[in-house]
Amino acid sequence: MDTIHLYRRRYMPDETVELKDDLILYRDDNILVTKWNILKPRKDIDHGISVYYMKEGFKISKVFDSADRLVYWYCDIIETEYRPNENTYIFHDLLIDVLIYPDKHVEVVDLDEFADFTENLTLPAPLLAKALRQTNNLLRFIYEGHLDELTEPITSRE
What we know:
By secondary structure, the protein is an alpha+beta fold. The protein is built from 3 helices and 9 strands; from the N terminus they run βββββββββααα. It has helices spanning 111-119, 125-143, 147-155; strands at 5-11, 14-18, 23-27, 31-37, 47-53, 58-64, 70-83, 88-100, 106-109. The radius of gyration is 15 Å and the shape is globular.
């Protein structure tokens, strides 16, 4: 099988980065599981494992510090673009993020960035609406107690 290429497309800052060092642990038509180290050194986080739910439109990452302690679960709202001829995935970060701390405290972040993009019409309106729906679906899963089901592709591969 050809090499799989992974890219993260961010709008703030405007950049596309190849995730060339990410190790793919599993892939099927709906999910992709990767293990990674952070791209830029930080004191608070060091590495993690992520599951991309490509149809649902979110990525859930279990993020660790350098002592291998859980810092938080970090959930990105994403749009997945797959280019089969290139065997390439581009994960577009749709700005809204949800953090779940070890004590189960949930925090929704970066809504201010999302509001800026909404005001400036930087992203098409249907994509903005889709991001809100995907956030709502993710929060519903979390609030209804289904986080363990969403994180199982990670925890079963640790």
